[in-house]
């Protein structure tokens, strides 16, 4: 993900800064997606692995990134503590 883009974007809900998460967290989330055990904030079960993720400064919400495109919609966010 482009560093300049990361400096510009923020959480659409709280306007907190976002940062890329490490590969271990993404791998864990992808395992939960494969198992059918992960939903987004809208309650929709996630399908298809995510490539990267942008996490809010408070660490509560992750926004998925697929094919280098971040999905910055509130309802598409993933609660990390679910």
Question: Can you characterise this structure?
Answer:
- This protein is α+β, with helices and mostly antiparallel strands and 82 residues long.
- The chain has one domain.
- The chain has two helices and five strands.
- Strand 3 and strand 4 form a beta hairpin.
- The model has no long low-confidence stretch (mean pLDDT 95).
Q: Segments where pLDDT lies below 50 for 5+ residues?
A: none
- Give the fraction of residues assigned to helices: 10-25%
Distance between the termini: 26 Å
Element order: H for helix, E for strand: HEHEEEE
How much strand? 15-25%
Overall number of structural domains: 1
Shape field: globular
Number of helical stretches of at least 4 residues: 2
| Radius of gyration, in angstroms, nearest whole number | 12 Å
Mean pLDDT: 95
Class by alpha and beta content: alpha+beta
Give the beta-strand count. 5
Largest sheet: 5 strands, antiparallel
Topology:
Layout: H1 3-8, E1 18-20, H2 23-34, E2 52-56, E3 61-66, E4 69-70, E5 78-79
Antiparallel strand pairs: 1-2, 2-3, 3-4, 3-5
Q: Which terms would index this structure?
A:
alpha+beta, 5-stranded antiparallel beta sheet, 82 residues, single chain, 22% helix
Task: Give a quick precis of the structure.
The protein has 82 residues and is of the alpha+beta class. It has helices at 3-8, 23-34, and strands at 18-20, 52-56, 61-66, 69-70, 78-79.
